[in-house]
Design brief:
By secondary structure, the chain is mainly alpha-helical. It has three domains: 98 residues, no CATH class; 189 residues, no CATH class; 158 residues, no CATH class. The protein has 17 helices and four strands.
Length: 462
């Protein structure tokens, strides 16, 4: 039989148990002798004759047993314990040898208690499922009633759009970034090479790589999230990074390297230029194509996924050139933002009312930087519910422009983290918590033993 990696530890524990039994047996013998002395003393008091020599001999014996030496207490090293244990404890040894049935039952009860506490904090209950799916349905209803597909880029810049949320977003953008301000920002914050808009601007590029209608989608320097990174890199190198044929390709640009090298000014220049493109009209004064939705350009890399007679990457480009840009992303984000706020309110109210958590702690559990995996799974359920209804909306209308990009992004992000938690992290966190609690319990026992050792060392030894 193969030896356990903890064989020495098991033998040492068994050896200490045996020594403990020896000490217990010695105590029993001492107690028995003490009881015998008591009986003799009782007889002495009652007038019964007692052999004086026998009494003195017993007294001296017990004094010697109780004060074995004049030396101070000493500790035994671990190597010595292992050596003595290997000599005394023979044969195979395992947990069943050192733990009794009662001991195993106690350990199992402690583990079950840890699991219950863990599930109370991280497992979803019926209320959580109801809140998550209910809020997802509310977001779906808002999307169905208040969100419409984006207008064509060729419509007039001032033409009123359909949809309650669409109209509010249009008014907000037109107020914050009117035509003249977009033009001023574009002139004030030129970025050169990353702003290449036609294939002839790119050295060595074949025709059709970029065009005025798709360059903001294909050039990663115009991504609302990634644009700062790719834009600064391309400005410093005089290049333009595009997604072509499912790959990220870097082309030198005829516009050359920027004349700016200060990193903070480069960041400011990229922010200013991206702001100029958000609500910029076309050269003909139409609505035009603004910035793409976050990561929309990267999704063009998924050309290997077939969608009917087309593929996923081409469908993404179709959406963009037909008006689905950052402005439409903001429109679709409104029902999802309302869903998240409602879900947090209902979750905190439920936890506090049922006495499952304090208000402050529960609220922090819903914050992005301290998101409890339990609430993350609720978000995944909410986004999943909304996305399922949105699938029906696209199917019934036969229009992919009715996609709720924010809902699908939320499902992908929260769904990924929820799966990682369910399949991997949850088990690690559970057993790490059990291990920590048991180590703390063991440390408390060690501290108690050390305290007893100190107290015993202070006892007088004659």
């Amino acid at each position: 039989m193969s030896q356990s990696p903890y064989d020495d530890e098991f033998r040492a524990i068994r050896y200490i148990q045996l020594r403990g039994q020896d000490i217990a047996n010695a105590h029993e013998t001492i107690n028995s002798d003490i009881e015998s002395l008591k009986a003799q003393l009782t007889g002495l008091i009652s007038g019964t004759e007692l052999d004086e020599a026998e009494h003195l001999a017993l007294k001296e014996h017990h004094l010697r047993e109780m004060t074995p030496s004049d030396t101070a207490m000493h500790s035994t090293g671990l190597k010595t314990i292992y050596s003595e244990a290997n000599q005394r404890v023979c044969g195979d040894i395992g947990l069943a040898t050192i733990l009794s049935t009662d001991d195993l039952a106690v350990v199992d009860a402690r583990i079950q208690n840890h699991i219950k506490e863990f599930n109370d904090r991280y497992a979803l209950d019926a209320w959580d499922y109801a809140i998550a799916c209910g809020c997802g349905l509310i977001a779906s209803m808002l999307d169905l009633l208040c969100v419409r597909a984006p207008p064509k880029p060729t419509v007039s810049f001032t033409a009123e759009v359909d949809g309650i949320f669409n109209k509010q977003v249009q008014k907000a953008f037109n107020a914050i970034l009117p035509e003249d301000l977009s033009t001023k920002l574009s002139d004030l914050f030129p970025i050169g090479a990353p702003d290449s808009s036609i294939s002839s601007d790119l050295v060595g590029a074949a025709g059709g790589v970029l065009s005025p209608t798709n360059h903001r989608l294909r050039a990663l320097s115009h991504d609302p999230v990634l644009g700062i990174i790719f834009g600064i890199k391309d400005m410093l190198n005089g290049t333009c990074t595009v997604v072509q044929n499912g790959q990220i390709v870097v082309y030198p640009s005829s516009k050359g390297v920027t004349d700016e090298t200060n990193i903070f000014r480069l960041i400011a220049r990229m922010f200013g230029h991206l702001a100029s493109d958000v609500n910029a009209p076309s050269a003909k004064g139409n609505r035009g194509m603004g910035l793409p939705a976050p990561f929309m350009g990267l999704l063009r890399m998924l050309e290997g996924i077939p969608v009917g007679s087309s593929n996923f990457g081409k469908q993404i480009e179709y959406m963009y050139v037909n008006g689905y840009d950052f402005r439409q992303f903001i429109v679709t984000s409104i029902p999802m933002s309302i869903m998240e706020v409602l879900m947090r309110v209902f979750y905190v109210a439920k936890q506090v009312s049922l006495g499952k958590g304090a208000f402050g702690e529960t609220l922090l559990d819903t914050m992005p930087l301290r998101l409890n995996p339990r609430f993350r799974m609720m978000l995944a359920l909410g986004y999943g519910t909304s996305s399922a209804v949105n699938t029906g909306k696209m199917y019934i209308t036969g229009n992919i422009l009715n996609a709720n990009y924010a809902s699908w992004m939320g499902l992908a992000w929260n769904g990924f983290h929820s799966l990682k938690w369910s399949l991997y992290q949850r088990h690690l966190k559970l057993w790490a918590g059990i291990e920590k609690a048991e180590l703390e319990r063991l440390q408390n026992n060690i501290d108690s033993i050390e305290a007893l050792t100190i107290r015993a060392g202070n006892l007088p030894v004659k």
